[in-house]
Amino acid sequence: MFDPVLAEVRFGCGLSPRVAAPDGVAAMLEGLVAPDVMAERFPIEDFETFRERMAEKQRLAKFVKKNRETEEGKATAKQIKLMQRAAREDWLKWMAAHISRRVHTATGFRERVVFFWADHFTATGKNGLIRRATSPYMQSALRPRVAGRFEDLLVEAVTHPVMLQYLDQARSTGPNSPATLARPDKRGMNENLAREVLELHTLGVGGPYTQGDVRQLAELLTGLTFDAENGRKFSKGWAEPGAETVLGKTYGGGKNAHFRDIEAALRDIANHPAVAGHLARKLVVHFVSDEPDEALVASVADVWRESGGDLMAVYGALLEHPAAWAPERRNFKPAFDFMASACRALDMPHEAMVGLSEAEFRARMQGPLSMMGHVWQKPDGPDGLPEEDAAWLTPQGVAARLQWAVTVPQLMLAELPDPRGFVDVALGPDAPEAVRFAASAAESRADGIGLVLASAAFQRV
Fold first, then answer.
1. CA trace torsion 324, 328, 331, 335 (10° rounding)
2. What per-residue confidence (pLDDT) applies to 125?
3. Is 310 helix (H, G, I), strand (E, B) or coil?
4. 3-state secondary structure of 231
5. Distance (Å, rounded) from C-alpha 98 to C-alpha 240?
6. Up-side HSE of residue 21: CA atoms within 13 Å toward CB?
C-alpha cells in the first residue's frame, strides 16, 4: 500500500535529488509535530511583528494629517511610502520562503497541510499594510495549529484580524447596539463572516443551517473587531444586545456581551456532526481525487467524529486507507504546487530567488504563477482556489507552465541537470518511456528539463 514515491508526489512537495522520501505513514505524521525546521531556516514574519508595522504606520499617518504642509510632515509621508515598499518587498520574499520550505523540507506533508488550511480559511487584507499580511497570518494563526484540534484552528482563523478585515467584520455593529443607534447612517451589521463560517468553514454549502442561523451568528459576532495597536478585541458598545440562537443553542443574553460567547459558539459549530462529512470530503478531494472514493471519505469522516476533530487522527485515517494509495494519478497539480515541486526537483537554492530584484522575481516567479491561474494571495473570493482539474487545465495555464518550465530554470540555476538523469529525479523510477525518450532527444538541456516538467507524468498526482 505505502509507496514512498507516491507519498512525496501526492501528499508531499514532490521528489527531490537530495531529500529522501518518507519511509512510512508514521514518518509523515511525525513530520507534523516535529520541530519546525523549515520555519526556522526560511523565516516568515509573525503577525504580531507585522502588526507593529501597522501601528507605526497609523501613528505616522496621524502626524502627516496634522502636519501635511510642513517639512516634517512631508518627510514623514515619504517614510510611510518606504514602509509600504518594504512590506511589498517582504511579501514577495515570503513567497520565496514558502517555495524554499517546499524545496528543502523532509516533512512535505506538513507544508501541504498548512496550505490546505490556508486555502480553506482564505483571508487577505483589503487595504493598507494588512494587504501584505497573509503569510504572517498563516505563520502565526494556522501553522502552529494544523496538528491540533479543528475547533482551535477555527477559532483562531475566524477571529484573526486578517479574516475580520477580509470579510468586513471589523466594523460590523449590532442593529440595536449603542454604536448603531448613535450613528445609524454610518453603522450597521455585516453577515459575510457569519455566512462563510457556516457555508465554507464548517457545515458546507447546503449544510444544516438556515438564514436565521446566519443572522443570529452575525449578531453574535458584532463587537468582534481589531485595531493596529492591540490586535483582536471585543467592543461591547458595538455588540447586539440580548441572546442569540445558532443551530438550536443559545449564547449570550447576560448583562454584558463578551468574546467568550463567540468562542463558545464557534467551538460548538466546529463539533457539529455535519462538519466531519464536509471537511473529510474536502481533504480527500484535495489530496487524492476530484471524484473521491466514498469509502475513504466515510472512513475519514468517521474518525473525525469519533475523535472530536483531532486533526492528527483525521490525517492518519486519510493516510492509512488503501484508497489513498491508488496508483492512478487522478489530480492535476494546482499552479503553486507545480512551480514549487519543479523547484524542488531542480534543488533550487533559496539564494537564487531572494537574490533577485523585485522586478526579476515578479517576472520569473509571481507573474508566471498568475499566468498559470494563481494570483498570489489575491483570491477571487473566500472559497479560495478551485479544486477541480478543469480550472487548471486551461490552454493559457498549460501554455504558461510549459513556457516557465523551458525558460526560467536556466535563468535561475548556474547549470541545469542532464535531462536524462533528471527524469528519474523528477518522476521516479517508473517514469514513462515516452518522457525518457523526449528528454534524451531534446536539442538542449533547457528544452529537456522543460519537457520533463511539462509532462503529464509530472503534472499529475
1. 110
2. 96
3. strand
4. strand
5. 41
6. 22
- Per DSSP (E only), the strands in 67-221 are none
Q: What is the pLDDT of residue 88?
A: 98
Series of mean pLDDT values for 10-residue runs along the chain (461 residues): 97 98 98 98 98 98 95 96 98 98 98 98 96 98 98 98 97 96 94 98 97 98 96 95 97 85 98 98 98 98 98 98 97 98 98 98 98 98 97 97 98 98 97 97 97 97 97
What string of DSSP letters covers 117-133?
HHHHT-----SGGGGG-
Cell readout for 50 is: 507585522
Determine the pLDDT at residue 314.
98
Q: How many of the other CB atoms lie within 10 Å of CB of 73?
A: 16
297: buried, middle or exposed (CB in 10 Å: 19+, 13-18, 0-12)?
Answer: buried
**Are 304 and 280 spatial neighbours (Cβ–Cβ below 8 Å)?**
yes
pLDDT confidence of residue 255? 74
Beta-carbon contacts of residue 24 (< 8 Å; ≥ 6 apart): 2
- The whole-angstrom separation of Cα 56 and Cα 294 is 52
pLDDT at 253: 83
pLDDT number for residue 307: 98
**Domain residue limits, the chain:** 161-270, 335-459
Sign of CA dihedral 61, 66, 71, 74: positive
Distances (CA, A) of 362 to 91, 93, 354, 386: 11, 11, 12, 23
What are the Cα distances from residue 260, in Å, to 1, 223, 252, 257, 265? Answer: 45, 12, 9, 9, 9
DSSP SS3 for 149: strand
| Grid coordinates given for 359 | 522586478
What pLDDT was estimated at residue 28? 98
Give the integer Cα–Cα distance in Å for 330 and 393.
13
Q: Which DSSP helix (H) or strand (E) runs through 299?
A: helix 294-307
Q: Which helix (H) or strand (E) holds 65?
A: helix 47-66
Helix pair angle (71-104, 108-120), 10° resolution: 130
pLDDT value of position 257: 74
**Gyration radius of the chain over CA positions:** 24
d(CA 391, CA 207): 25
Q: How many Å apart are CA 452 and CA 111, to the nearest integer? A: 24
pLDDT of residue 137: 98
* Grid cell in block for residue 223: 463587537
Beta-carbon neighbour count of residue 232 at 10 Å?
17
Cβ neighbours for 175, distance < 8 A, ≥ 6 positions apart? 188, 189, 219, 240
